[in-house]
Each structure stands twice: as C-alpha cells, then as structure tokens.
Amino acid sequence: KSVGLCPQTNNHFEQLTVEEHLYFFGLIKGYNLSNIGPEIDRVLKLLNIEDKRYFKPSEISGGMQRKLQLGITFIGGSKILILDEPSSGLDVETRRTVWDLLLSIRDQHAILITTHHMEEADALGDRIAIMSQGEVKCSGSPIFLKRVFGVGYFIRVAKTNTFDKANCEQAIRNHLKSAKLQKDSTNEILFSFKKDETAKLPGLFDELQDSERKQRLGIASVGISVTSMDDVFLRVGMLFDKKNSDVKSKPSLSQLLVSDRTPKSAFGGLLLKRFHNIKRQPFTILFFIGLIA
C-alpha cells in the first residue's frame, strides 16, 4: 500500500476501462467501494485524463496509456513511488507534461526514478546516481556532479568552406587561456573552457562577431553552452572505462608467480605443502605408518 511501482512497459487489462483500472488497483491497496470514488476522481484530475474515464487502453493514445500506468502507481496515496523510465515512448510535449506532474507531487512523495534520459534526470533529480555494469560509480546533486565531472562551458564555432582553424584557435586562446579543443568535425569545432573565465567572453565575441574578422576566419556562427548531464555521463563513462582497462592490463600477483615457475619447481612446491600439512596432523602420520606396516 505504501509503495507504487511504474514499470517501463505498460501493463493494462484490455477489457477494463481507465476508471475500472483505478478501481481494481485501488481496491488492492486497501480502499473499499464506499470510499474509492473520491480517490479515483483525484487521480484522474491529477493526470488530466478525466475525459478518458470510460475508454479502454486500446482506444487511447500511447501518451494517455502511460498516464494511466502512472495513475495506477499513484492510486492509494502511496508515499514511495518507484518509476522505471516514466516518460519512455512519449513525445516531447507529453514528456514535459509528465515531468511537470512529477515535480508538482515531489513534496508529498519519495520518488525513485531510473532513466537513460540525462535531461530527465537533470530536470527531476534532487540527487543523481550514475551506474555502470551494475555498480554505482558516482552520486550527488546535479550541480555537484557538473562541478566535479563537468568541464565548464563550451564554445561552438560553425565553419564555412574557408575556415581557418589555426587562427580561429589562436583568437580563442588569446581570450580564454583554459580553452581546450574537444571536437573538430566537418561543420563545426568545439572548445571547452573553465567557468572562471566567463568574464572574458564579451571581448571574444566582439572579435569573432566582427564581420571582417568573421569572414577572414571562415566563421559562420558562434555559440556558447554550459555542461549538461549528458556531458557528465559521458565523462564518467570514459573515466571509469579507462580505469577498468588499466586494472585489467596489469597481471595479478598469482599470474606473475605462476609464470616464473617451471613445472618441476611447481611440483616440488606441492609436495612441500603436503609434507607440512601431514606434519601438523599426527593421526594422518600414524595412518600412513599403519599402511606401510
């Protein structure tokens, strides 16, 4: 009763209407026919699907079906909500609606969400844990993770056919000493720089946006963006993948010991180990003496 679960895939009964679904799961959570009506009305209003009350799942859109699944999770006033990919398969507008809904009830519930949408994690999460290969690699607030694993800000320069990479790079580094080249593709070039150099951006933009200078460098446009959770996720993945590969590349102590032994010395070691084991067990020694006798 205290836990509501929303799986990644919708689980509906095709013969039941939206209202009947809420009746069924509400009764399971402890309501009875005399008091479940107001609770169903509350959930339908919360999800804004009051006009779909008498429709079956096959008669409503995918977004409405997902809202019904969330309604099944919310019915009964569960204090703990576990949501697996709550906005999976939804269009952008419906996804935003679901996010707004979850944000509106966050004060009344403890909500645990699993998602592969970093934007969703950033928008909804008070604390975010990034997992890889079944292990939590890092956790913290979005601001904390961006500060620790982020690279600050990005400058994105769109190229023309006459783009002058060397002079453009030099112009950027003249203003931003921490600028590092992150990506150089056919259509654009991307630099990262530290947050404490943001005060120097107006001077850089004045230079790069000058029409004559812009044409000489072959720049189509210049933009700026801040580190996103996608950037954090990719950086965490790269750091831990590199760490794991370094660990795997180092031979273990047992491998080093075995590799330096010849078969003859290894057999001698086994005999020596057996001798010490027998020496510590007098009954075993008597047994062997009895066999010899």
Automatic annotation (TrEMBL):
Q: Which residues form the ABC transporter domain?
A: 1-87
Q: Which domain of life is it from?
A: Eukaryota
Sorted keywords for this record are: ATP-binding, Nucleotide-binding, Repeat, Transport
A single GO molecular-function term is:
ABC-type transporter activity
Q: Which GO terms describe its cellular component?
A: membrane
Know the name of this protein?
A: ATP-binding cassette sub-family A member 1-like protein
Cross-referenced InterPro entries: ABC_transporter-like_ATP-bd (IPR003439), ABCA (IPR026082), P-loop_NTPase (IPR027417)
Give one Pfam family.
ABC_tran
